[in-house]
Structure formats: C-alpha cells, structure tokens
Amino acid sequence: MKFICDGLVLSDAAVTVSKACSTKTTTPVLECIKIGAQNDVVTLLAYDGEISIEKKIKADVLEEGEICVNGRFFSDFIGKVSGMNVVISTGDKGLEIRYEDSESFMQALPASEFPSIKGEAGEEYFEVKEAALKALISKTVFCCATDESRPILKGCLLETEGGKLHATALDGYRMAVSQCEAAGGNGNVKIVCPARTLTEISRMLEGGDETLKIYVAKNMLFVSVDDTVLTSRLYTGEFVNKSNIFPPAFSTQFCVSRAELIESVERASVLIRGDKNNLIIFEVKGGNILITANSEIGNVSECVKGEMSGKELKIAMNGKFMLDALKALDEDKVKLSFNTPIAPFTLENKDSQESSYLILPVRTTA
Amino acid sequence: MKFICDGLVLSDAAVTVSKACSTKTTTPVLECIKIGAQNDVVTLLAYDGEISIEKKIKADVLEEGEICVNGRFFSDFIGKVSGMNVVISTGDKGLEIRYEDSESFMQALPASEFPSIKGEAGEEYFEVKEAALKALISKTVFCCATDESRPILKGCLLETEGGKLHATALDGYRMAVSQCEAAGGNGNVKIVCPARTLTEISRMLEGGDETLKIYVAKNMLFVSVDDTVLTSRLYTGEFVNKSNIFPPAFSTQFCVSRAELIESVERASVLIRGDKNNLIIFEVKGGNILITANSEIGNVSECVKGEMSGKELKIAMNGKFMLDALKALDEDKVKLSFNTPIAPFTLENKDSQESSYLILPVRTTA
Questions:
Q1: Shortest Cα–Cα distance, A324 to chain B (Å)
Q2: Which of A169, A275, B36, B298 is deepest in the core (most CB within 10 A)?
Q3: Contact A142, A154 (CB under 8 A)
Q4: Are residues A146 and A159 in the same domain?
Q5: Are A198 and A151 in the same domain?
Q6: How confident is the model at residue A243 (pLDDT cuts 50, 70, 90)?
Q7: At residue B109, does pLDDT exceed 70?
C-alpha cells in the first residue's frame, strides 16, 4: 500500500474514526484503525466490537493495499504533520510515514486480523432533522444507566410513531422522555440504541436543517454523514414500559422560574458536595418552595416563589438529578408535579410537554 | 461580627485568599479563611503554614469580630451569591450568610484557633516591574524540583546584583537561569523562594508596567498588590552554586529554528509517550540535527537543518525537558551547545543570553 495525501485531510479522518477505537481491550487490533487504499480513495475504519466508524478520503493511491495501526498514536502523530503532504506506505517495519525530508515508522498489524463487521443497512429507515436529533440526544442520553447491572438501560429507547420520534432513557432512579418531529421513514421503528452511539452520532452532526436518514436492520443501526459511516450494534431485550411509570395524575403542582430554581439548587449543592446522598429537600407550601440542604459543613435554606396548586408537600431528592433535569429543560418557567413524598415526581417546561423528567424521591427517616 | 457587602467583591476576595488555604492537612483551621470585620473594613486571611494571603475589602460593618470558615466551601458558596448584597454574621450555628429572602449557615471555628503569622516586613527590599517578574517566573519556575528529596530545590534562587534580578531553578536533571532588570532596592538580596509562592505572586500580578516592591526579612518575603498582601516563608540552606555547573566552553554549537525543532521533538514525543525515559536522540552532523526516537509503537527519524560549528556529536536526552526549555525561550532561532554525549548541554536564544537552560543527557547503552 502506498498513497500521498494532504496531512490535514488525513488527520481529520483519523480523529473522526479513532472515536470508535477501543480503549480498554486485551485485543490490540480493536485499538487500531484499518487503513485501506483502493482506486483514488483511502478508507479509514475503526471498530470496538459495538460501534464502527468509517471515513473515505481522496488520495493519490500509488499502490493498493490495507493495514492496521494503533488509532490513538496514529491520529496524534498525523495531527502533528497536518501542515504537509504525507506519503503513507507499508514497509518491512510496518507503516511508513514520510513528510518533507523525514520518515517515521509505526508498528502495524495485518488487515486480516481486523474483525469483520456483520450486518447490512437493510430497507427500514427513519428520517429526522440533524438539529432536532442533536437536541433530542442531549435531552435524554444523560439519564441512561452507566453501570452494567441492567445492560439494556445503558441504551436509549427510540420509537417512531405518528410522525414523531420518541426517546426514553432511564437508570433506575430517574427517567427522561422527549420527542421531536420525524421527517419521514418507512414503518415504525423501535430500537434500543447504546448511549455512546447516540453521543458519537451527535458529535458527527453539524446540527443544521439537513435531514438524516437512519437505517435499522436486525440489531444494527447505520448512519451516513458526508463521507463518514457509523454502524452500531443495538441492544436487545425488553425495555421498561414507560406508560406504566408516569403517574396519571398529580396532587401538587408548582410552576417556578427555572433560572431561580437552578441557582438555589446549585447553592445547596455546594454545601452538600462530598455527601454521598447529595440530598436536598423541597417543601412546597403556600406559594413557595422552601429548599433546604444539610451537611457537616453547614446548611442552606432558601425560598423560591412560584404558583402552587394542590396539597402541601415535603420531599427529599438527589440534588444532581434535579439540576440535570432543570438544565435540560429550556423554557423560562418549569412545572413540578408531585403526589406523595415517596412517589416519583416530574419536571416539565411549563408550556410545552415535549420533554418530561421523572425522578424518584429519596426516603428519609427524618 | 456582622457586615453587609457586595457579593461580587466578597467572592473575588474569597477566591484570591483561598489560594493560600491548605488542601492536605489534618488541622482543619489551615483549610479556613479567617474573616475579620473592623471599622469599615473586612479582612480575609488564609495561611497554610508556608504562604499567607490577606485581602481587605470595604464593607458596612454593623458589629466587629472575627471567625474562621472552610475556605473552599466559603469561596464556592459566595461565588453563587455574587449577584446580590450579602449579610455575613456570626450566630449560634457558626457563620450566617443572608441574601434576599434566604439564609444559610456554615460551620465555623473560633478565630483564636487561627495560627499567628510570624515575621515583619523589615527594611530590606528590591523592586521589579510586574511584567518582567511575571516573565522571569514563567521562564524558571518549571525547572524547580517537585519531590521532597532535596527540599531546597523546590525553591527558586533569587539574587539582585548590579541592577539585575537573577533567578535560578534546578531539579537535579536540568537547570534554568534567567535575569531581568531590577528596578531598584536597597542592598543585595539573596533568597530561595518556594516555587509555589512565585506561582501565586505571578497569578496576583496584572503584568503591566507597574513597579512591585518585594520586602525580605529573616526568612520571610512580603509582597503587596493593591489590597492583597502575600507573605511567604523562604527556604534556608545552601543552594547549588550555579557557576560550578555551567560549562565554561563548548566543543559543538548548533543554531536552529526554534519552531522547527519544537515540531520535530513533539512528533518524536507522540511515539515515545508512555515510555518511562521519554528518550530522544540528537545526532549533530554536517549542517543538520538528526532527531530520532524509538518505542514499541514505532520510531521517528527527522532531519532539521541549522548552522553547526565544532565537532559532530550524538547525544540522548529526555524529550520533555527539551520541549519545556524550547517553549520557554522566545527568539526565532535558538543555540544548542554541547561538549560530550555525557556532559550537560545548554539551550539559549541565539542573540540574547538572558535565559539559559542546562540539561543533563541520558546515558544510553546503545
């Protein structure tokens, strides 16, 4: 294999695909980028067993072939020759990189060791605007589980129905549901997509008005943006049925300025920082929420005014979950809805119901 | 104690003095800021046993007094009420912080537990322009030792002589010497100042044309910038005599573009990242330096052109030390001066000799 290309183009491609390189593996080839040259195209491909990212770039191919090199080292090194033309070739020592009067070598593995990526794009797809998908991902993916105790919860449920794309994420303590317009598609899709895949897709998107076509086939997802193709394994199994979780009615509702509530919870969070439970207490009473937090360091006691309807209530919760949800909402006013001190409560924008957050309260002995 | 002041002014002061709060201590009061109110002035003071920082701010003092609170929590908390007027008072529970309709408490310690800071400003001083001192610190302090094996090397030697301020820092493997104009003073100062003190002083300075007066008394240093006073313990003992270390003559000299050499050493550093010795090899030959580095990952071999005089030479060194020194120099061209593969070598700007870096080579078996 031998090709000449612009260092900057190669560097950009290496950075993009290296996101799919494995960082924790005992199989060195999963840390690699497979580089292949054919006709006037160079293809870079990385795959960690779950996600693969492939990018094609134009190059002056002198000799066809393919090889695998460590993705992190390759992308860092090529980033430092991005101002020059680069000649990449395979030699006795591995991969040879020539630029100006210099030449460097990197250890390489034969392309035959690279795992084959199973699955085909298939016929089923849905369409969504890039900006809408980016927003949907940022509003839900932070609620996915990060531990392995229930692997399916590390993914986000995506469903198309009635011209909408619905996303649901939950980690056992809180849940996010959000929706956006689905621009098109064929049939109804229902998949559980790894959170990491959604984060990588979001990173690939410019976030403009373009329509993205997402193909789904038996347990696999395929997205193509410009010359970059991402494929991902999907999770299989039964996802939690969200309709059983959201309370059908509430006995207390409270509308409040989102900014004021964020500031208040942030101050409370300073003093409970380091405390395991990260516990703050809301007391909904009269037209106010009294927000308190106690720790060894001290205590905060603040009063935020709002509009209340229903019964008075005192409830304890994880301050971080509260802040995450408040920051993911976007209207000036938000609506909190409660039933009892031990029942899940919800947060929504006051006017739109596109996104809802549900949080389990913390039972306190006090 | 009770006073009212602007949250932003109090927050700025708390952030400034909290730099002198201890972070690793079994003595809680050393993690504290002592807050004192007298007349119409509030004084914040922190002291970790080595450095103290004190800042005075205007406030509406309703009741005089003093108290100690955890510096990190206090400055973080006050940072979140910086948009309001704040009422600070002592109460049964400790320190009370009131703002708008809210009130918070922080655990506090009596001011009597705060250690007294010994030492007086004294008569001896030297003067230096703020920008010149900032530059001097950034050019030398990174070469101070960070381990405890020879505590005095954690400091930087500062000497005034003949209208100049000289700084020397070394860690046993490399040395930095630099000088700037001393704007004035009385007598010749010779002190070893903790690197951390110099970093904090640099952070306090705007870096303009103002003249800074640094007072030195028996093992203590005193600097005052606006309403902030920093005091620091100085190190005592015999510092290494630098005149014995710098080689009087060199058998090989090489002038080269600083930017080209930095790029080349950076590329070499990518591939040796993770290798303990961080070893790169310079081969000075003809009008070139051949730069090579080898690791399990691969190897780099680059050629940088320059102007050579004297004998040919091959020498191995720590790539990080090389990069640190090259980045601290500032001219387009730098001069490397060598004797033998096992003798210390120097780096300087080609034209000015204000700063010199000396690096011990690494002996290799190859």
A1: 17
A2: A169
A3: no
A4: yes
A5: yes
A6: confident
A7: yes
Give the domain range for residue A269: 246-359
Element (H, E) at B169: strand B164-170
Of B91, B87, B159, give the one whose Cα is nearest residue B128: B159
Interface predicted TM-score (ipTM) of this complex, two decimals: 0.86
DSSP-assigned letter for residue A148: S
CB neighbourhood size of A153 (10 A): 23
In the block, which residue shows the tokens 């193909």?
A215
Whether residue A14 is found in the same domain as residue A94: yes
Q: Is residue A150 part of a domain?
A: yes
What does the pLDDT look like over A189-229, one tens digit per residue?
A: 999 999 999 999 999 998 888 999 999 988 899 999 989 99
Asked if the structure places residue A120 within a domain, the reply is no
Total domains in chain A come to 3
The Cα–Cα gap between B44 and B48 comes to 14
Which chain B residue lies closest to A95 (C-alpha atoms)? B298
Size of interface A-B (CB pairs under 8 A): 86
Boundary of a domain, candidates B211, B243, B275: B243
If you count DSSP H runs as helices and E runs as strands, how many of each does chain A have, helices first? 6, 27
Please give the Cα distance from A45 to A52 (Å, whole number): 7
For A10-44, the pLDDT digits (tens) are 999 999 999 999 998 889 999 999 999 999 999 99
Name the minimum distance, in Å, from the CA of A298 to any CA of chain B.
Answer: 4
Q: Which of B73, B94, B266 sits opposite A80 (nearest CB)?
A: B266
CA-to-CA separations, A187 to A127, A160, A218, B297, in angstroms, rounded: 11, 8, 14, 49
Q: Which residue has the higher pLDDT, B46 or A188?
A: B46
Among B80, B107, B298, the residue with its CB nearest the CB of A106 is: B298
A218 and A135 in a common domain: yes
Residue A50's CATH number: 3.10.150.10
List CB contacts (< 8 A) between B303 and chain A.
101-102
Q: Are residues B69 and B42 in the same domain?
A: yes
Position A366 confidence tier, pLDDT thresholds 50, 70, 90 = low
Nearest to A299 among B104, B267, B303 (CB): B104
Do B225 and B184 lie in one domain? The reply is: yes
Of A197, A213, A242, the position where a domain reaches its end is A242
The full DSSP string for A40-100 is TEEEEEEE-SSEEEEEEEE-EEEE-EEEEEEHHHHHHHHHTTTTSEEEEEEETTEEEEEET
A251/A355 same-domain check: yes
Alpha-carbon distances of A2 from A73, A299, B65, rounded to whole Å: 20, 67, 78
Distance from CA of A256 to the nearest CA of B (A): 16
Which amino acid does the sequence have at A274? G
Q: Does residue B322 lie in a domain region?
A: yes
In this structure, what token pair is assigned to residue A110?
A: 């034969």
| Structural tokens at position B263 | 């790029």
Tell whether A28 is covered by a domain. Answer: yes
Whether A34 contacts A45, CB under 8 Å = yes
Altogether, the residues listed in chain B come to a count of: 366
B8 and B91 share one domain: yes
